[in-house]
Design goal:
22% strand, 7-stranded mixed beta sheet, alpha/beta, binds S-adenosyl-L-homocysteine, Rossmann fold, binds magnesium ion
Length: 185
């Protein structure tokens, strides 16, 4: 099942989480005894299904029509564990529960906005995990202007996390760069 989705993603250039990233999520879910996850960026449902199989309840946001249709189909068998919110996470103004973990894996330019909007939904002791913080380790001198701006934006977000007085962040050299942020209690 997950392997079929992985192949689909590969064939259609859908940027799903890498194998190392999945292992990292698995370990994080175990270490922090994560039961409920808010995911930003469902794509075809690959990471959401993985976390459901690890025993989590996952609420996940997706804004792209094509992805929404695919994700709906894929998460069908997991409907009591995965709730898809087919909306732009930055425009959503409905009700949400509280979560043990927020997994940010959507538009890179918006990470700080996701963080600021959704950390109020973090339970005490909860964590924020981010994916794709290093942008494929690209050389900033050799990329287009728009890519450079995106890299700089991610760098500003990393600094924001590092210097935030209420949070403590550790960065991991997994995949494209992942992080775990904890609230200083
Ligand atoms: N988490 C997935 C991959 C997500 S790819 C996995 O590893 O399997 C990123 C997805 O985020 C894309 O499908 C994109 O459409 C979605 N996205 C980007 N910005 C968003 C936003 N503001 N709200 C909801 N979805 C968003
Ligand atoms: Mg990702």
């Amino acid at each position: 099942m997950l392997n079929d989705l992985k192949q689909y993603a590969k064939d259609h250039n859908v940027p799903i989480i890498c194998d190392d990233g999945l292992l990292f999520l698995k370990k994080t879910i175990k270490d922090y005894q994560i039961k409920s996850v808010l995911e930003i960026g469902t794509a075809i449902g690959y990471s959401a299904i993985f976390m459901a199989l690890e025993g989590c309840h996952v609420t996940t946001f997706e804004r792209n029509k094509t992805m929404i249709e695919l994700a709906k189909k894929h998460i069908e068998p997991y409907q009591n564990q995965i709730e898809l919110i087919a909306e732009d996470a930055l425009l959503f103004d409905g009700n949400l529960g509280m979560f043990d973990m927020i997994f940010i894996d959507a538009a890179k330019a918006q990470y700080q906005k996701f963080f600021e909007k959704y950390t109020p939904y973090l339970k005490q002791g909860g964590i924020v995990v981010c994916d794709n913080l290093s942008f494929h380790h690209l050389d900033i001198q050799k990329v287009s202007r728009s890519t450079r701006q995106l890299i700089q934006k991610l760098e500003r977000f990393k600094t924001y996390l590092e210097t935030h007085p209420d949070y403590q962040t550790t960065f991991y050299d997994v995949g494209d760069g992942m992080s775990i942020t904890k609230r200083v209690e």
